[in-house]
Amino acid sequence: MRNIKIIDDITKDGQVTFGDGYAFVDDTAEADAILMRSTDLHGYDLPASIRAIARCGAGVNNIPIDDYAKRGVVVFNSPGANANAVKEIVLCMMVLSSRGVVQSMDWVRQNADDPDILTHAEHVKKAFVGRELKGKRVGVIGLGNVGSKVANACVYLGMDVYGYDPFISVEHAWELSRDVQRVGTLEDLCRGCDYLTLHVPSKADTVGMIGTDQLALLAPGAVLINFARETIVDEDAVDAALHEGRLSWFATDFATPKTVLMPNTFITTHSGAGTEEAEANCADMAISELKDYLENGNIAHSVNYPSCSMGKARAASRIACLHANVPNMIGQITAILAKDNANVQRMVNESAGENAYTMFDTDEHLESSTIDALKRISSMYRVRVIK
Ligand SMILES: NC(=O)c1ccc[n+]([C@@H]2O[C@H](COP(=O)([O-])OP(=O)(O)OC[C@H]3O[C@@H](n4cnc5c(N)ncnc54)[C@H](O)[C@@H]3O)[C@@H](O)[C@H]2O)c1
Ligand SMILES: O=C(O)[C@H](O)COP(=O)(O)O
């Protein structure tokens, strides 16, 4: 039996199914793996029993992934599984900030007891006249799973679309409409934009990337949309731009002590991924990642270890070694196996940044002394006997 600790509400109805051979536990110290969403794990006392964490969602700035890698804990996310949900709410924010929809609805509610409301609505409607998205310039920062979908949707809406992503993946470059014009600098992207929408992860080079200088380049009365992370924008600069009218609206998914006091804001409750479909997609992807890792040692969509697959564990034994990406690890591993006279059927070694993963199948079970010797290799973070 493998034990799973669930942190956060994974789905609205609470349904999470792993199938036979799995149990849910309350005590994390009894768990093999964690399934979670946005809880901040920095400072969390992670028990040694935990071998893997799957984050249902994209952003992993709430998880100390480098530290966990060095403790032999593989962290997964679910790339793209909630991207459509975010795309739709971003488009919604573009419309809301352009058409006076909310203000017009507010007026109707406030005048609900007016028997002549139909006539009076005709008189007042000019106050809610807005502008169309078609033909307007939109800048999209980050052209990954969400940003590429937003950019393409804006093309279909007839907007003049510009994108900035120095690290765009080949896969997302292929997905991007040829009508999305890619620019090489953040400044060129911001210049003259009527709408600016942010779709980058929160990390050292993106924290505060939208500040006074970038906002000054936007078209007068531009709209800023932040459904990425609160850290990406300099909130004081946004506040000043709103007060001075340089920004007409700020739509954000992050209710912070500062954003809630700003004028002309649409603020949601970190609800970008809040659809039944996105929750189900994220849970399905995260659960299958965890199961394949726990049962077979295979890694897909990890944010701190390389992808690696040897299919189902069918040989007598399968061992996975999580270690630093340094020279002579394979040499040391095979030397120890040779001492045990172990016959390796298949071996795979993959690396990603500072971390590496070596997995092998053997014809017979290894002696426990052999496993202990593997664990004693310097720079070895964890050795798993999967089978
Ligand atoms: N509000 C929500 O509910 C919600 C939902 C999903 C994602 N998000 C946030 O949005 C972010 C993006 O999500 P995604 O699924 O598109 O992730 P993703 O990893 O698919 O895409 C991120 C893109 O940002 C690019 N990028 C990285 N650093 C950059 C930089 N300095 N300048 C420009 N581009 C840069 C990457 O190359 C990548 O293409 C997530 O990390 C998360 O923080 C929020
Ligand atoms: O990074 C993400 O995927 C989003 O911010 C969604 O977070 P949530 O799963 O906590 O809603």
TrEMBL record:
Pfam families: 2-Hacid_dh, 2-Hacid_dh_C. Residues 318-387 form the ACT domain. Its EC number is 1.1.1.399, 1.1.1.95. The keyword GTP-binding does not apply. It is an enzyme of class 1 (oxidoreductase). The keyword Oxidoreductase applies. Keywords: Oxidoreductase. InterPro entries: ACT-like_dom_sf, ACT_dom, D-isomer_2-hydroxyacid_DH, D-isomer_2_OHA_DH_cat_dom, D-isomer_DH_CS1, D-isomer_DH_NAD-bd, NAD(P)-bd_dom_sf. Pathway: Amino-acid biosynthesis; L-serine biosynthesis; L-serine from 3-phospho-D-glycerate: step 1/3. Transmembrane segments: none annotated. GO terms for molecular function: NAD binding; phosphoglycerate dehydrogenase activity. It catalyses: (R)-2-hydroxyglutarate + NAD(+) = 2-oxoglutarate + NADH + H(+); (2R)-3-phosphoglycerate + NAD(+) = 3-phosphooxypyruvate + NADH + H(+). Belongs to the D-isomer specific 2-hydroxyacid dehydrogenase family. Catalyzes the reversible oxidation of 3-phospho-D-glycerate to 3-phosphonooxypyruvate, the first step of the phosphorylated L-serine biosynthesis pathway. Also catalyzes the reversible oxidation of 2-hydroxyglutarate to 2-oxoglutarate. This is D-3-phosphoglycerate dehydrogenase. It comes from Enorma massiliensis.
